[in-house]
Amino acid sequence: MKTYFVSYEEPCNACDGSGIIENPQWTAYWHQTNGHRHLPIDQQLEADEQWWAKRGYSSTSKWPPEEINCDECDGNGIRHGRVLLTEALSELLKNHQMGEVSP
Ligand SMILES: [Zn+2]
Predict the structure, then answer these.
(1) In this structure, are residues 80 and 69 in contact, taking their beta carbons and an 8 Å threshold?
(2) How far is ligand 1, taken at its centre, from the CA of residue 79, in Å?
(3) How far, in Å, is the centroid of ligand 1 from the Cα of 7?
(4) What's the gap in Å between 10 CA and the centre of ligand 1?
(5) How close is the Cα of 30 to the center of ligand 1, in Å?
């Protein structure tokens, strides 16, 4: 007996279809330091440099980019997949009955 599959595309929910996400290192930076805003402004850059230096980034020019390509969709904003044809039909019928798909 043959098994039938169907491929699909859907907007990537990791990046909301933009293909770009915040670099997790920057997410950690903002979460842990809040930009060192509690410090006087003339000490913030030094605190930033120390924070990044501990993670292997020696100067401002070498800090990692704040945004990177989404690794869930390889920066395309679209995810591709493959499911059983029966699963796809079942989902389509269910969505149709709920009024989410027009005839
Ligand atoms: Zn994505």
Answers:
(1) no
(2) 7
(3) 18
(4) 10
(5) 21
Give the separation between CA 89 and CA 25, rounded to whole angstroms.
Answer: 41
Could you report the per-residue pLDDT of 35-72, keeping only the tens digit for each?
A: 899 999 999 999 999 999 999 998 877 899 999 999 99
The mean pLDDT value of the chain amounts to 92
Plot region of 78 (φ>0 → left; ψ -120 to 50 → alpha; else → beta): beta
pTM: predicted TM-score of the whole model, two decimal places: 0.67
Q: What are the residue ranges spanned by the domains of the chain?
A: 1-19+76-103, 24-64
Residue 80 Cα to ligand 1 middle (Å): 11
